[in-house]
Amino acid sequence: MSNTASILLKKNPRSRTLKEHQPIAYLFVLPYIIMFSIFIIIPVVAAVYLSFTYFDTVRFPEWIGFENYIMILTNDDVFMQNVIPNTLTYAIIVGPGGYILSFLLAWMLAQLPSKLRTILALIIYSPSLTSGVTMGVVWKVFFAGDNTGYLNSFLINLGLAVEPIVWLQSQDYLLTIMIVVTLWSSMGVGFLAMLAGILNVNTELYEAGYIDGIKNKFQEMIYITIPTIKPQMLFGAVMAIVGTFASSGIGVALSGSNPTPQYAGQLIVNHIEFFGFNKYEMGYAAALSVILLLVVYMFSRVAFSLFGSKNE
Amino acid sequence: MKKIHKRSKFQSTKINPKRFHPSQVRYLLFLFPLALFMLLPLVYIFNHAFKPLEELFYYPPRFFVNNPTLENFRRLFELTGVSGIPMSRYLFNSIVVTVLVLFFSVLIATLAGYALSKLAFKGKKIMNEINTLALMFVGVAVMIPRYLVVEQLGLIDNFFVHVLPYLAIPVGLFLVKQFIDQIPNELIDASRVDGANEWQIYVKIIIPLIKPAIATIVILSFQAVWNSADTSQTYINQDSLKTFAFYMGTLTNNTNGVAGQGMGAAASLIMFVPNLVIFILMQSKVMDTMAHSGIK
Asked: Does residue B45 sit in the same domain as residue B129?
């Protein structure tokens, strides 16, 4: 750097970081923008475009307007009778349910001394390190349909069941098992963020709260902890929503087939995959994708309106 | 004086206490059984993976292993895929893919995070907003258009298609950016005055200061890529290019026999243990990053 330049900088160093345009920044963000565009932006835009077409991957997409959406809403019995109810049940229990559970767990862990807390937090977090695929083998033995399955053998020994139940192929149990399994592995990044947030709340805030008449732990949580860690609560909520939908391939992994038996565990993600890769109705699948993205977005809006700062 | 005494009743359990106190028992009464339940499937994998064949056949099934053996691992490594590809090949692919993803995702996220936090440029605000929006992005939702993009780019059956989709992680960039926001501007200004250019500042100041955030991206990326069977399933037809996670999936689908369960558990263990080790090594750094994770 030349002398004059450094003198100029010395004169007013702050303005450089705050206002002056620094073209070199584009080089820093370029790799991210390229990857982000290829794998996130373009697919989303393409999904929106394709959702208005008929596309069988062989011929060029043919523009058909809203026909896919109309078909989905009026003519897709599986979507209306199985996919929507399943997805809603699954998403509400695993999403908000799992989120509240992970906040309460984080909050309880924060009341414990450091060593004990670290060990318990690690145990609760560790299932989220597994994935549906790797755990498939475990769940299949746990829930095996004959009497060699752990759950069946356990229930029969206790006299709670007379004969083995075919858990993973059952219309009555598949969705419940999916929910339990997903909840089991849902204490992930959001859980850690909320735990870190609670641990970092300034203790003086609590002292002040006691003087202002906070009477019990519950009031302390509602009036001090949650408002103070709102940003972490929001991050945790967004992670919970995304995690819920991202892991929704679990039904197919457990039952071993798409569609799942009698559509018992059919979620919108499986429906997309089925139409896209099994039936090659790409336009129709794209319309389902757009609906899914909108649903995720709406869930997130709710989270933002609960925990976001006002100027957002 | 009275007032203070009254308060201390529930104040005795404090956030982040220094030592154990009887009032914590009520939380433990809930947390211990839950932790036990959470641990059960993992304990099962550990036991099942080391069971000799005859114990796998026990009826009724037993949870714990009596005579641990490495037999399942040996059989797993000797097993070859449908097209005669040894299992070690899949493991090798997974390791290469994971190393590449870790290196490049950290590089890309830290570069962009530095610019988004500390440099001034047009479009910065909108880029931050788009990235926050993209936190809500669910990859599986657009698997079909993604497939079409990959196909158009001629990346089907290209080894790097395992790597590329995992390089831009909105959560990773978000966490890094939040973390760099904590670094005082004065520090950066001072080095500019000393004649450092942006690249030097990035290498010599930013990178050493954001190690906790880097550790966090490493964990997130590792988890995503090491566990993923999607890229193999969707973009790769050639067996020799597929990854271990995919191979595991086929293993659990094709070997329904009891003997297969032992191998399956052994393979699950190979998948799970690296995740756990990396997290344990880096957990204090991760917690440090998570403290800055809030969305404002």
From this structure: no
Q: Where are the domains of chain A?
A: 37-307
- Flag whether B79 is in a domain: no
Could you tell me the two tokens for A100?
């509240």
8 Å CB contact of B122 and A21: yes
Residue B200 domain flag = yes
The residue segments making up the domain with residue B50 are 24-69
Do residues B295 and A308 touch, judged by C-beta distance below 8 A?
yes
**Tens-place pLDDT, residues B52-97:** 888 887 777 778 888 899 988 888 888 766 667 888 899 999 999 9
What is the nearest CA distance from B52 to chain A, expressed in angstroms? 16
Do residue B135 and residue B253 come from a single domain?
yes
Q: Are residues B111 and B223 in the same domain?
A: yes
Tell me whether residues B280 and A122 touch, CB distance under 8 A: yes
Q: Measure A208 CA to nearest chain B CA, in Å.
A: 12
**For the segment B134-185, what is each residue's pLDDT rounded down to a tens digit?**
998 888 888 889 999 999 999 999 999 999 999 999 999 999 999 999 999 9
Domains in chain B, number = 2
Q: Do B15 and A150 touch (CB under 8 A)?
A: no
CB-based contact B246:B238 (threshold 8 Å): no
Residue B222: closest CA among chain A residues belongs to which residue?
A: A129
B178 in the same domain as B38: no
Q: How far is B86 from chain A, CA to nearest CA, in Å? A: 19
Structural tokens at position B264: 């399956």
Chain A positions in Cβ-Cβ contact with residue B206 (cut-off 8 Å) = none
Report pLDDT for A62: 92
Q: Hunting for tokens 């499937």 — which residue is that?
A: B41
CA-CA distances (angstroms) from residue B72 to A8, A99, A137, B75, B78?
69, 38, 14, 5, 10
Evaluate whether the domain defined by A37-307 bears CATH number 1.20.1560.10: no
Q: Chain B: residue nearest A247 by CA?
A: B140
CB contacts, 8 Å: A293 with chain B: 137-138, 141-142
The CATH number for B210's domain is 1.10.3720.10
Q: Is residue B123 part of a domain?
A: yes
Same domain, B153 and B52: no
**Would you give the distance in Å from CA A211 to the centre of its chain?**
39
Query: Do B64 and B186 reside in the same domain of the chain?
Result: no
Q: Do residues B128 and B196 both lie within one domain? A: yes
In chain A, where does DSSP find H-type helix? 3-11, 13-18, 24-36, 42-50, 67-75, 77-78, 84-92, 98-110, 114-125, 132-142, 150-158, 174-184, 189-199, 203-211, 217-220, 226-228, 230-246, 250-255, 268-273, 282-307
Chain A residues inside the 8 Å CB shell of B29: none
Eight-state DSSP code of residue B122: T
The residue of chain B with its CA nearest to that of A248 is B140
Domain annotation covers residue B135: yes
B103 and B201 part of one domain: yes
Interchain pair A232, B290: CB under 8 A: yes
Whether A231 and B293 lie within 8 Å, measured CB to CB? yes
